[in-house]
Amino acid sequence: EPGWIHRGLGDLIADHGVPAEARAVSDLTGLAQALSDGPVIVSVSFRFPTNGSKGGHLVLITGPTWTNGELSGFFFNDPSRWGANNSYVTATRFDASFTGRIIATTT
Predict the structure, then answer these.
(1) pLDDT mean over 26-35
(2) Deepest in the core among 38, 44, 55, 85, taking most CB within 10 A?
(3) Average pLDDT across the chain, whole number
(4) What is the spatial distance between Cα 38 and Cα 46, in angstroms, rounded to a whole number?
(5) According to the model, what pLDDT value does residue 102 have?
(6) Closest by CA position to 74, among listed 46, 40, 37, 23
(7) CB atoms within 10 A of CB 5
(8) 1-20: per-residue pLDDT in tens?
C-alpha cells in the first residue's frame, strides 16, 4: 500500500530521538497550538488546492502567521519540486486541503 501510515511515521521519528505523536486536530487553532511545541507534519493535498481535495501528501509546518490577532497562514517545508519554490500558504488555502491529521513533534 503506498504512502505513510501516520502512527508508523510518528514511531519512526521517535525512534530517531525526536518525540512525536500522530493525532487529529479539530481545526487550524488546534494545529497552531501543536506548533507551539515544535514542527508538525500534516496531511494535505499536493499544492494546497481549493477544489475540496484533501490529503495524499505530507508537508512539515514550521510556524503560523497572525494578522491582527487572526491566524492568517503557515510556513511549510515541502519535499516536492514545487515546494522548492513555495514555503508559505494562506490559512484559507491550507484549510481547503487539510485532513486534520498531524504528526506533532516536541523539540
Answers:
(1) 95
(2) 44
(3) 92
(4) 23
(5) 96
(6) 40
(7) 10
(8) 345 688 888 889 999 999 99
Per-residue CA distances from 91 to 7, 32, 42, 73, 84 (Å): 25, 11, 14, 4, 20
Q: Are 45 and 90 in contact (CB under 8 A)?
A: no
**Residue keyed to cell 513555495:** 86
What end-to-end distance do the CA atoms of the chain give, in Å? 31
Tell me the C-alpha distance between 93 and 44, whole Å. Answer: 11
Q: How many CB atoms lie within 10 A of CB 97?
A: 23
Neighbours of 88 (CB within 10 A): 12
Look up the pTM and report it. Answer: 0.90
Q: How far is residue 10 from each of residues 14, 15, 28, 58, 96, measured CA to CA in Å?
A: 6, 9, 20, 13, 24
Contact 104, 38 (CB under 8 A): yes
For 33, the grid coordinates are 497550538
Which residue reads 490559512 in cell numbers?
91
Contact 46, 82 (CB under 8 A): yes
